[in-house]
C-alpha cells in the first residue's frame, strides 16, 4: 500500500522521468549548472506533492558520452568509454540528490554499478519500496551494461517498477515530423501510435527503448521541461507535449 499522499486529480500514480544530461547544464554548455538542477528539482517537488511516486533516470551527456570516443582513439575501448559515461550519470545523480534534499525532499540514489560509498545498489523491490514511502528515487549508471543507452535504461526501469508512464523531458515541446529548429514547417504531433513512430523513424527515443515500450504497452510522454510547471501538469494528465499511446 502506498504511503504517499493521495490526490484524486493525479492521473499517474507512479512515473519514470527520463532526464538527459544536457538538462543539467545551460544550453550550449557542458558540465553542471546548479541553478538548472535546482529548477528541475523544484518541478519534481511540485509533482511529488500531488502524491505521484517519481523515479528519475538520468543521462550523462553534459559530462561525457560513451559514444564520443568511438573511432577516435584505439587506446580507449568502446566498452570502457560506455562505462565512463555511466559514471558521468552518477555524478549528475549526486547533484540532483543534493538539490532535491535542499528543498526538503527525501531521496535515494541507486546505481546499476555498485559503489556503496555514494549510493545504494539498484534492487527492484527496494526501489519500489522507496517509491511507496514517498522518496524520490534517482536511478543512475544506466543498466550497468555497455552499449545500452539511458533511454533504454528508462524503458527497462519503467517496466520493472510497473510505472504508469515513461516521461521524457526535453528542450522542445514534443515530437515533430522533423527537427523544428532546422525546419520551420515541421509538423507537431499531439498524439502518436507506436506504429507511426517506427514507420516514420521519428526521433523520440532509441529503437530498443521504443521496441520495449511498444511490446509491453508502456505509454511515453515527450514534453518540454523548460516550461515551468510542465512536470506537474503532465502528472495531472493535462495536455502537454506528445503522448505516444499504445492504443493508437
Folded structure, characterized:
One of its GO terms (cellular component) is cytoplasm. Keywords: ATP-binding, Cytoplasm, Kinase, Nucleotide-binding, Pyrimidine biosynthesis, Transferase. The protein is of the alpha/beta class. It has one domain: Acetylglutamate kinase-like (Carbamate kinase, 3-Layer(aba) Sandwich), CATH 3.40.1160. Helices cover 33% and strands 18% of the residues. It has 7 helices and 11 strands. The protein has helices spanning 34-48, 78-102, 124-132, 150-160, 194-199, 207-216, 230-236; strands at residues 14-19, 53-58, 107-111, 120-121, 136-140, 165-170, 175-176, 188-189, 191-192, 220-224, 242-244. A 9-stranded mixed β-sheet has the order 4-3-5-2-1-6-10-11-9, sandwiched between helices. A two-stranded antiparallel sheet has the order 7-8. Helix 1 (34-48) packs parallel to helix 7 and helix 4 runs parallel beside helix 6. The longest helix has 25 residues, at 78-102. The chain is globular and about 45 Å long. 44% of the residues are buried. Mean pLDDT is 92; it is low at 1-8.
- Counting structural domains, the number is 1
Helical percent range? 25-40%
Number of H- or I-type helical stretches: 7
- Termini Cα gap: 32 Å
Binding site for ATP: 18-21, 61, 65, 170, 176, 179
EC number: 2.7.4.22
Catalytic activity: UMP + ATP = UDP + ADP
InterPro entries: AceGlu_kinase-like_sf (IPR036393), Asp/Glu/Uridylate_kinase (IPR001048), Uridylate_kinase (IPR011817), Uridylate_kinase_bac (IPR015963)
Amino acid at each position: 500500500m502506498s504511503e504517499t499522499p493521495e490526490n484524486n486529480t493525479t492521473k499517474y500514480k507512479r512515473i519514470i522521468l527520463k532526464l538527459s544530461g544536457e538538462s543539467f547544464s545551460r544550453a550550449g554548455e557542458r558540465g553542471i549548472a546548479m541553478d538548472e538542477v535546482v529548477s528541475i528539482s523544484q518541478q519534481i517537488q511540485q509533482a511529488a506533492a500531488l502524491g505521484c511516486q517519481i523515479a528519475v533516470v538520468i543521462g550523462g551527456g553534459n559530462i561525457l558520452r560513451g559514444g564520443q570516443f568511438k573511432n577516435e582513439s584505439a587506446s580507449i575501448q568502446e566498452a570502457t568509454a560506455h562505462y565512463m559515461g555511466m559514471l558521468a550519470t552518477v555524478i549528475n545523480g549526486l547533484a540532483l540528490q543534493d538539490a532535491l534534499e535542499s528543498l526538503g525532499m527525501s531521496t535515494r540514489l541507486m546505481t546499476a554499478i555498485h559503489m556503496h560509498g555514494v549510493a545504494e545498489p539498484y534492487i527492484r523491490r527496494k526501489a519500489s519500496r522507496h517509491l511507496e514511502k514517498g522518496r524520490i528515487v534517482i536511478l543512475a549508471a544506466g543498466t550497468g551494461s555497455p552499449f545500452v543507452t539511458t533511454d533504454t535504461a528508462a524503458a527497462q526501469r519503467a517496466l520493472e517498477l510497473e510505472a504508469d508512464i515513461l516521461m521524457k523531458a526535453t528542450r522542445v515541446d514534443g515530437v515533430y515530423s522533423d527537427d523544428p529548429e532546422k525546419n520551420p514547417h515541421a509538423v507537431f504531433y499531439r498524439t502518436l501510435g507506436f506504429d507511426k513512430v517506427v514507420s516514420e523513424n521519428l526521433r523520440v527515443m532509441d529503437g530498443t527503448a521504443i521496441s520495449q515500450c511498444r511490446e509491453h504497452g508502456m505509454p511515453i510522454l515527450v514534453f518540454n521541461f523548460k516550461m515551468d510547471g510542465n512536470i506537474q501538469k503532465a502528472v495531472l494528465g493535462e495536455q502537454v507535449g506528445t503522448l505516444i499511446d499504445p492504443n493508437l
